[in-house]
Amino acid sequence: MEAQISTEGEVQDLLPSLKKLIADIESGEGDKAQEGFDELTRIRESQLFSEMGAMTRQLHDALRSFEVDANLADVAETQIPDAKERLNYVITKTEEAAHRTLNAMDEAAPLVKSLGSTAVDMKARWLRLKRKEMDAGEFRFLLDGLLVYLDQVEGDCGQVNEYLTEVVMAQDFQDLTGQVVRRVIQLVQEVEENLVGMIRVRGGAQAAAATAASDKSLEAEGPQINSDGGADVVSDQDDVDDLLSSLGF
Amino acid sequence: MKILVVDDFSTMRRIIKNLLRDLGFNNTSEADDGSTALPMLQNGDFDFLVTDWNMPIMQGIDLLKAVRADERLASMPVLLVTAEAKKTQIVEAAQAGVNGYIVKPFTAQTLKEKLEKIFERLEGAA
Question: Looking at CB atoms within 10 Å, which of A108, A114, A167, B124 has the fewest?
């Protein structure tokens, strides 16, 4: 593009220099005429530079806008499907946890109920004994029954305790899904910033810097949402133990 | 034995404390990330550290490194309990001097085994 003397004001700026140049040439002042030429060139150069400045700004904005678009494309193509997968993982995990808890309750409830009802029966028989309403045969039967009952209490309490531990362990979903949901929230925030940035660029204002988070190789990643997360991911505790023992653990 | 349990999720801290109690460890305290845990370790008389990896402000791996770098804490046994499951991460933890590594989700049995193994090694070394 050729720099042009575009406004009335710029022409007026040139006028005194031109008049002086013509006067110098007419009066044969060679040195002064040379200076006049240089002056005119300088004025023209400065106009050229300001044009270049404007073009640079346009290019910069265009590139920035392109960058924002590229970020959005990445979000649409990879991150949104990934976020959907993550949210599905949350549904699966919470569902599993609810079933684990309810199953443990279903198993524990009849044991507790049976212990309670046997205790009611034993108590009634002991009260009969206290009131001396019991013969020797019935008393021996009561003693045998008591031993059976104590065995039942011992065994069932152990089992109920295991079910309670199962209920406790089922709550680990909150940590695992919490980490995953945090990542999805982070993505939503990035999308929001990208969209705001794009609107600013389109509006001609200076674009907000929308820099994507840099991927550090050993940044914490949270739970693997697929059991087959790739060659670099261990699939269970046995894999961890194997790896550690290969390192001399 | 006094144990510090560090995890940013209060549910996971409760789970681990609950399991430790079942195993007979009743003296436990909690911290929600490395930056709150480190001063507790430095000012307290803890014997054992159980920590998560992925936490805000100061991550578990950095807490482990800080513990190993602190003269008075350097020999404290550290067990990582984390969802981080990349081999490079496990190797990094091993190189940083971790005593045990458990991936979430884990079972009560796994925690018991790893604790026993760590104590066995410590007794063997002593």
Answer: B124
